[in-house]
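Continuing the batch. This is chain 6 of the set; chains 1 through 5 are on the previous pages. Same settings as before, nothing changed between runs. Recording input and output for traceability.
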Amino acid sequence: MGTPRLVRVNELLKREIAEDLYRNFSMSDFDASALTVTRVECAPDLRDANVFVSVFGHEEERGRMIGYLNRHRQEIVRLMVKRVKLKYTPRLHFLLDESIEGGDRILAILSEMEREHPETFKNDDQNNERP
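Output for chain 6:
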């Protein structure tokens, strides 16, 4: 997880980068509203930061969207440093975070199983006895 300071820096960068994306990249050919900055992981020396982004929808365009963010990372950093003062400005590396999508897929599978076999998923007190 990192030191308390690193955790605070990660959260600060996550919030600021997300705001910058919505504020400055909501143009017609780039759907910034589909992006969620899920987490930021700064290196301990603060010189590099991985920015994990999930993309809602746009299945065929996700790679292109992450590539777009990486091509515009200097612009994103310029916006960020106006409000975030750190000893070093980290190089940002945008990565696709598919963990939310994986969780959604698991929930959909469980929901389908419950529809097909409701007796297995009954929530009665007899099945949930406490020792």
